[in-house]
Design a protein that fits this description.
This protein has six helices and 20 strands. The chain is of the alpha+beta class.
């Protein structure tokens, strides 16, 4: 990728492309896969990341926005899970409304990362069934997901100053109360810029991922962890709960984050109060049947509290789900039926760091 050099201390890419008219701007063209966005313009294209059995390419759609003045390079990504389509829609709606003539620096958007899952409306790709969000930093000769994350990780490491990686609930299945996730190893990383960047998205709940996950594998295998090791501040906003509200608040978050980064004109806003949580827990069912939640999004729950029931087809309550810790409900299952291990009946942002018994 060839992109303009940002004004930050990080260098970008192997070099600059030909300059545009110096009377109009001192910016260079932004080029990815031979798709060029001149100063003050946008461009669209597809990034080849793999090949299928017949030799046909697997490609990821991308959108480039190149400002008329020098500035930072922000990457925006979505759909690490193929069924989280609201992430892609939010990114596309933001980029369609972004005026590159008002932009300082560059924005590179990839609305869909796990394309083979997205195109069949599945969470994981039917090709390798790997959780894309846990496949970082990838391997050049690994599974499909690992090859794609390897390519994406290389491009972002070479070109990005900041990254926003969008996730969402699943309308009709999982509702999510908007929150952000930030991961880091030392508190100094949080206080030296990541905090302000994450808060700029204007979601009042922030979950801190520090160390290893309690249920879903190593948090060191995420995009967030991989980029932080490269010194690139990044976070995950979970947009939702519904399509209209998710797009509206997501677009608002992008716009404010760009103002915080001095990439768009005007002052960045800041909420009066943010709520921080040191962990998040997933509550999975072990039985199948009709699902009835006793709690709603943003409800506070106590450890040991009954939060849902599962009723078999005979009408018998076969399981009641229990909150494992004190916290706030940030994700709730909304499908009327559920099965063993479905992801997930609840996510609970905890008030204290949780140690799995």
């Amino acid at each position: 990728m060839r992109s303009p050099r940002s004004t930050s201390s990080r260098s970008h890419g192997p070099g600059n492309d030909d300059a545009v008219d110096a009377g109009e701007s001192n910016m260079k063209s932004l080029v990815l896969e031979d798709v060029r966005a001149g100063a003050g313009s946008k461009a669209h294209g597809y990034l080849k990341v793999a090949e299928h059995l017949d030799g046909s390419p697997e490609k990821l759609p991308f959108i480039l926005a190149n400002g008329k003045a020098d500035g930072l390079c922000l990457w925006i990504t979505g759909c690490e899970h193929g069924d989280e389509t609201l992430a892609a829609a939010t990114i596309i709606m933001f980029m369609s409304g972004l005026d590159p003539k008002k932009l300082k620096g560059t924005v590179v958007a990839l609305p869909v990362l796990d394309s083979t899952a997205f195109n069949v409306k599945r969470r994981f790709s039917p090709i390798d069934s790997i959780d894309f969000s846990r496949a970082y930093p990838g391997f050049k000769n690994g599974w499909l997901a690992q090859q794609v994350t390897y390519r994406i990780s290389e491009l972002m490491s070479e070109n990005a100053d900041y990254v926003i990686n969008v996730h969402n609930g699943i309308p009709g299945i999982l509702d999510v109360s908007p929150y952000c996730v930030a991961t880091y190893e030392k508190k100094e990383q949080w206080l030296s810029g990541l905090k302000d960047f994450t808060e700029s998205f204007l979601f009042d709940k922030i979950i801190h991922w520090i160390g290893k996950s309690t249920e879903r594998g190593e948090r060191t295998s995420t995009m967030m962890s991989t980029l932080m090791k490269k010194g690139i501040p990044n976070f995950v906003p979970e947009v939702g709960p519904d399509t209209k509200g998710g797009i509206r608040t997501g677009v608002r978050g992008f716009e404010n984050s760009l103002r915080f980064l001095k990439m768009l004109p005007g002052p960045a806003k800041k909420l009066k109060k943010y709520h921080s949580f040191p962990d998040v827990l997933h509550v999975f069912p072990t039985r199948g049947g009709v699902f009835t939640s006793y709690v709603e999004l943003d409800d506070e729950v106590k450890a040991g509290q009954k939060i849902a029931s599962i009723r078999s087809f005979t009408g018998e309550v076969t399981e009641e789900l229990i909150s494992p810790a004190d916290g706030v409900v940030v994700v709730v299952w909304t499908n009327p039926v559920i099965g063993s291990g479905d992801f997930a009946a609840f996510e609970i942002a905890t008030f204290k760091e949780f140690t799995k018994p």
